[in-house]
Amino acid sequence: MKMRSKKICKPSYNFALLMILLMLIVVIYLINNHFLDYTYISNVVIKNIIEMGLMALAVTLIVVTGGIDLSVGSIMILSAMAGGMVVVKVGGILGVLVAIIIGALCGLVNGLVIVKLKLSALVTTLSTMFLFRGIAKGMSAGESVYSYPITDFIGNTEIFGLQLSMLVYIVAAIILTLLLSKTITGRTLYAIGLNENAAKFSGLKVEKVLVSMYVLSGFICALAGFMYLGRFTSIKFDVANKMNLQVVTIIVLGGTSITGGIGDMRGTIIATFIIAVLNSGLTVMNIPIDVQTIINGAVLAISLIVYAILNKHRFHAKEN
Amino acid sequence: MCEILRLENIVKVFPGTIALDSMKLSVNAGEIHSICGENGAGKSTLMKIVTGVYRPDTGQIYLDGEKINFNNPREASKKGISIIYQETSLFEEMTILDNIFLGDEITKNILGIRCIDYESMEAETIKVFEMMNISLDFNQKVKSLGMAQKQIVEIAKALKSKSKILILDEPTASLTEREVVALFKIIRMLRDDGVAVIYISHRLDEIFEVSNRVTVIRDGKFISCRNTSDITKNDLVTDMVGRSVENYYPKFETEIGEEIFCAFKLNQFGVLHDVDLNIHAGEIVGLSGLAGAGRTELALAICGFVKIDSGEIILEGKTRRISSYLDAMEAGIVYVSEDRGKYGLVTEMSIKHNISMSQLKAMKSTLFIDNEREEKLARKYIDEFGIKCKDSDLLAQNLSGGNQQKVSVSKAISLSPKVLILDEPTRGIDINAKVEIYNIIMQLVKNGTSVLMISSEMAELIGMCDRIYVMQSGHIKGEVNRVDFSQEKLLKMALEVE
Amino acid sequence: MGIESKTVKKKILTAEFYLLIFFIALLLLLVIIAGEFFSLNNVMNILNSASYLLIGAIGMNLIILTGNIDVSAGAIASVVAIFIAFVGKTGAPLYILLPVAMLVGATLSLINALFITWLKIPSMVATLATTQLFSGMLPLIVEGSVYGLPNSFTWLAFKAKIFNVIPASVLGAIVLAIIAIIFMKYSKFSKKIYAIGNDRSAARILGLHVGKIELSVFIIAGALYGVMATILATAGQRVTTTMGSGLEMTMIAAVVLGGTRISGGSGKILGTVLGVLILSIITPAMNYLGLSPDWSDTVMGAIILLSVIVGAISLVKKRHNMFDLKDKLSRENKV
Which residues of C touch A301 (CB under 8 A)? Predict the structure, then answer.
């Protein structure tokens, strides 16, 4: 007699996340009424999360297959730096091209090692996280790389009162949500996460899809790199770690299972906003940056704990 | 011979099903006792109770006359009950020696600290190996061993802990004939030494060859326990099935057309050698052979999962280049893999999503997958094949084995293949479901599809096929037509070495 | 006779042997190209850093053998360093600082272990979270660094020397390494560690208390991190909040370079020793060879990636049944 596997009901999990988001907004608003001002929202809340939110979208696709990409922050930095350094020597357009190519290339390295050499995604991207960051450090000799006109444009323009970067995020979010839930590629991703062999035996292009997801991730990291460079006008290699962690936090908070097969983009998006609100809420309450680090760690820890408890009976079923 | 294990009135209930119903069992020391029954009969539950994995809801267990209760597997193994499963549970990266003694290492005191005493462990292992008449370098890692050798290590492990009862669960599934002979020799030696060997198997020939008595169980109930010398295979089947063998296979005459498929001189280094095989329209062709003969490998090669080094695939007179499974599907060759849980289905997905998985492109309308189309497709096969479910959104894992297999087969049939390759299509499903699958196959060939059936059950091949190829070590040893079918002939071909 | 010599050959030509050759080759290269590398001061410095690295790496090795990973090791070291700095300000000598360090390290590592064994959170994400928690704690307690530490604090680094020249930490590392090697060969506990790393569920069925064993491993590793942090912290009269930062990568690099499989179940302490030795001379060697230290992270990352790839390639080479392999490997993708 097969036991029913009690998956946590994703729609209700998403609903709970939404409630948490609303609660947070209300609490912070009560503390500081300016919180809901439009300028504040677009300048502080949204802006600070765009890059990580973008990368989290791409990584969600990967985590659904049971993989992970820990190197996203490092790819972002490396591509942005490479682009920036090229621009200084040669010019804007080439810089953009180089950044995108580097990003995609890094993703390709991840994808090929994981898929062709069959190394675990965890170990591979842990190594490349370190490797890519190291290359960025070496290339820049530890110094900062500065922004250039195109990145300024991408990072800072407003269209109809909406930040261009926000627009990019919305478009990406819509495209990737649809990709995951309604396309053949999306179905393939879930199949891989639940039973890769069965997916292969059904004729799904498993290897191709997997590698392209990692390349996509690299490309999106490069995109995020543009925005970051534009917004902060300079970038240094040591930002990578914080990025990597935030992305993982968003994904875990969003309810996408690290073991694969479960999760959707909606959860990631809501989680992105929760982190955005949380971070800016802390700023509003004048809590120093140092504390924010530990709070981010606590959010990840709590998400993991909650997820583990919710899934405890699922694990028990599996072990029997 | 005295009784060493006795189970009385064992009842075990799981939510929604009675796994064991007043089960009884009696095993003597110094005998090889087979337990026989269809899948779902309760064999594995029964063994789990004997080995302490489950506690019975009611009933008594007597070991050597003494009433006992096992709270966990460790207690059972301490009392001398060992079980060897098909998938051995050895630790691959550790040595044979480490594996045999794990958890129970011999230690000696050096300067007041307990250290592992390798010399004593090696000496004892040598003794056990001598007793079994084998020689292995026990300092090599288990991962470098073959299946048969791994089983031997497991048996050595049981011997070292002086097991009184040794349970073997389908031990010969992945052994060559020579290895089976060697295994039987060891089992007989154990029996002569006073060990009680419980032998669980589907293979009636083996049961009669090696065991003294056989217990048949069906639907969780005890049916019979008799000496193998007193009964025939038919008696066993009748007990297992509750009906006689003849009505088993729903085979009828179908129109067999032109040659539709031909594999010509297929070679894959070390795996397939000059394989020639052809199939006609509407024909059921069987592929027989013992484990390791290369049947699945042949199917994988034909379907483009693994590259072939040389040879041709000719479909409907035209040579086709098949470099991936997608090419094969496009050409009209579809494969249904042998282990539906592992390879055939994504059990955590719905019936609907499973059935449509091979043809998602056809399920598309503009950019996205159309749920209506998937629903329609699933409905068609749920109705046609009688898949027992509330609706097509039910997760495949909630279906019984037979129904799961129907889903797996539906996925393939929905592609309207010209050649359908079924790998062990009725493995692990109960009698009634088997017959339903056979009916599905007959319907298929009636409509002109050709079927290549790989099976380890010779009776099944003889019952269903028009022709049977016999494979051995990657070669096609021979081809037999329906008129000449006999189990002896097939087995002889499978065994004969050049 | 021929068969005997074959097995003897097999026993010598292990991975550890090749590592040793590589290490010696590196040394020779340095002798030839940069002779001044072998100044007394330089060698002693390298020995010291190799020592604390090795002690921590042994702990990491144990964790990785069980099929887990610990990226919080550096953060734990930082916390321990600050903690004993506070204790050291009172003038406490080494024989108090060391046990305290081991206790704190073990406690922090225990927190990791509870996430992993009790809540069943995969070790990678669990330790990712605790890294943030541990290192995030520090700026709240201390602004930047603890300074003005008394002489009693720096005794280990400045005063404790063998033959007046070799740092005592080297002795500590050698002793611990020997104990570790003997332990991993001759104790029943070590067999259990290997078993868990090989096949967690089979180990459980065998009756091994997987959770308890993992817990113990993490606690031991934590204590070792504490020793490592002590050596690090007592090197000078000021302890910063980021002393251990990044160390975990070097430790992991040493462990995988030494031949321990990242998925667990196989690997030797001796290999880790050699891995540490090689890594310890690579960074300073690069300096001497003119390569900027900014590239050392790259080299470390490349070493990890290459070591892990090499480990995986030998697995892929065995082309059995294509799908047997996949099963094996998908089981291994647990880390």
Answer: 115, 129-130, 132-133
Residue with tokens 């980021």: C242
- Measure CB to CB from residue B369 to each of A184, A202, A205 and give the nearest one: A184
Distance of CA A255 to the CA centre of its chain: 14
Q: What is the mean pLDDT of chain C?
A: 84
Q: Is A320 on the interface with C (CB under 8 A)?
A: no
Mean pLDDT score, B457-483: 87
Give contacts of B102 with chain C, Cβ < 8 Å. Answer: 191-192, 195, 206
Q: What is the pLDDT of residue A188?
A: 95
List the Cα angle B118/B124/B126 in 5-degree steps. 100
pLDDT digits (tens, 9 = 90+) for A295-318: 888 888 888 888 888 776 554 443
In this prediction, residues B178-197 reach a mean pLDDT of 89
Put simply, the chain C residues between 243 and 272 with a CB less than 8 A from any chain B CB are 261, 265-266
Burial of B326 (0-12, 13-18, 19+ CB in 10 A): middle
Structural domains of chain C, with CATH: 39-300 (1.10.3470)
CB contact under 8 A, C263 and A124: no
Which of B345, B360, B398 shows the shortest C-beta gap to A187? B360
Cross-strand pairs, B475: B472
* Confidence label for C314 from pLDDT (cuts 50, 70 and 90): low
Write down the pTM of the prediction: 0.83
Cβ of C333 and A66 within 8 Å? yes
Interacting residues of C193 by C-beta distance below 8 A, sequence separation 6+: C62, C65, C66, C184, C213, C217
Architecture of the CATH domain A2-319:
Orthogonal Bundle (1.10)
Q: For chain B, what percent of residues have pLDDT higher than 70?
A: 94
B338 touches chain C (CB under 8 A): no
Q: What is the DSSP string of A46-101?
A: IGGGHHHHHHHHHHHHHHHTT---TTHHHHHHHHHHHHHHHHHHT-HHHHHHHHHH
B74, B86, B93, best to mutate vs chain C, most C CBs in 10 Å: B93
Shortest Cα distance, chain B CAs vs residue C74, angstroms: 30
Using a 10 angstrom Cβ sphere, with 0-12 exposed, 13-18 middle and 19 or more buried, the burial of residue A28 is: buried
Helix (H) or strand (E) holding B95: none
